[in-house]
């Protein structure tokens, strides 16, 4: 076999670090999915990353399909990004005053996306939280609508029937709505929840409550329940919310600059009032952003009455990494087609390997995002969180461990997308499919 790893690798250093981490950090991690709770085993502590590969604290190399949960579309340690940050570093790491790179990135983002104004923050959570406050300030209404299984970060009003880590940690987080302890019912009450890909449900909700609703926020392609692709009918219903005076907010934190230079919005022909970005826009450094029509964005302080601020917003190193990443994407027009082709070949290879082993899977993929749900329904037929939730998570966990033991680091949850990067090529595809065949065979046996 040409598996990346000849034999399951030692995890001694990761285990020791995890034990020390648990003594000083809740659950030993700074973000829940990293703890491997839903798949079991020791989370690998990463020492370095390069191209498509991670190297852990024990010196073992893994082929990476997480890409830091989305930002690393160019692969890790890309020279353009590394050099841009290195160039910015000696000029100081934070000013608390405006600087040229913020203007350059804002000009680039507005040109690429069609937004007229953009405001930089430091995470995707801040972007969605701020966009909702802006929508409430602009419309003078207080309710918002989100979709079951969509994840928009961890602001109080958005932790209602949420996706991502919340789908696998329900034991510790409690009941369905709100999705987290510590979110008062009074906040959760202001978030109305509808089913993704159910245009009739959204129309009915808007007919009943439309004049109280400030905004409808949605993932234009869902990554946080596993990949879910919107139907044309659902997209039409999303556009109709604007007729009721509600703002349409596309959460492109995951899909922005990933599915195309203009995100999922560009791919699907959507026209949101506001868009949220994160991940790729900062090239692996902490950046989020929200933007849209000038008429709406000019409600943000100091221009308007909606307050929003940040000590590290527009951080010079983060702006440098974002600029280098977006410029590199723009300079390589064939890149998105290559990512698509890799992901389609991966989907085809997984399908064949699972079939051969008699393992039931159903694949959803678009661009460089893919989820292989462990359930026996046709590819592409999983459209809602309720559909995704029927997956066999025990089978997924077994398969995940089979891949990891062979050096392929898949997303450690059934309800996440994997992310393909520009550093994934033929060799990586071959290694992945070989590992996947062996992992499916051990599951089917
Ligand atoms: N929105 C979406 C669609 C996301 O996928 C995420 C994170 O995964 C967020 C918002 C929150 O972003 P962050 O983790 O940077 O706060």
TrEMBL record:
Swiss-Prot/TrEMBL catalytic activity: (S)-4-amino-5-oxopentanoate = 5-aminolevulinate
Q: Which CDD domains match?
A: OAT_like
Going by the record, the broad EC class of this enzyme is isomerase
Q: Carries keyword Isomerase?
A: yes
Q: In which pathway does it act?
A: Porphyrin-containing compound metabolism; protoporphyrin-IX biosynthesis; 5-aminolevulinate from L-glutamyl-tRNA(Glu): step 2/2
* UniProt keyword list: Cytoplasm, Isomerase, Porphyrin biosynthesis, Pyridoxal phosphate
One Pfam assignment: Aminotran_3
Give GO MF terms, alphabetically.
glutamate-1-semialdehyde 2,1-aminomutase activity; pyridoxal phosphate binding; transaminase activity
Q: GO terms for biological process?
A: protoporphyrinogen IX biosynthetic process
Q: What Gene Ontology terms describe where this protein resides (cellular component)?
A: cytoplasm
Q: Which cofactor does it need?
A: pyridoxal 5'-phosphate
**EC annotation from Swiss-Prot or TrEMBL:** 5.4.3.8
Domain of life, per lineage: Bacteria
Q: Which residues carry this modification: N6-(pyridoxal phosphate)lysine?
A: 279
Tell where it localizes. Answer: Cytoplasm
Q: Which family does it belong to?
A: Belongs to the class-III pyridoxal-phosphate-dependent aminotransferase family. HemL subfamily.
Q: Spell out the PANTHER family in the cross-references.
A: GLUTAMATE-1-SEMIALDEHYDE 2,1-AMINOMUTASE, GLUTAMATE-1-SEMIALDEHYDE 2,1-AMINOMUTASE 1, CHLOROPLASTIC-RELATED
Q: Which proteins does it associate with, and in what oligomeric form?
A: Homodimer.
- Protein name per the record: Glutamate-1-semialdehyde 2,1-aminomutase
Organism classification = Bacteria, Thermotogati, Deinococcota, Deinococci, Deinococcales
